[in-house]
Amino acid sequence: MSSTSDKRRDHSCISCGISISGTDAAKFDCPECGTLIYRCSKCRKQSNLYECPDCGFTGP
């Protein structure tokens, strides 16, 4: 069960670090370990690399 603070927590783009709250961001599971990853629309459009903080998987 999620707490209220978890529901309101701001998330950041894994590539550039900006807050994605209220933006057209993507949320997906890491292909290797399943960790939740957030990316802003600008980084997705530019195919900026990201690295999973848990397993080190790198993707565009």
UniProtKB/TrEMBL annotation:
Residues 13-56 form the Small zinc finger protein HVO-2753-like zinc-binding pocket domain. Signal peptide: none annotated. It comes from the Archaea. PANTHER family: SMALL ZINC FINGER PROTEIN HVO-2753-LIKE ZINC-BINDING POCKET DOMAIN-CONTAINING PROTEIN, ZINC-RIBBON RNA-BINDING PROTEIN INVOLVED IN TRANSLATION-RELATED. This is Small CPxCG-related zinc finger protein. It comes from Natronomonas pharaonis (strain ATCC 35678 / DSM 2160 / CIP 103997 / JCM 8858 / NBRC 14720 / NCIMB 2260 / Gabara) (Halobacterium pharaonis).
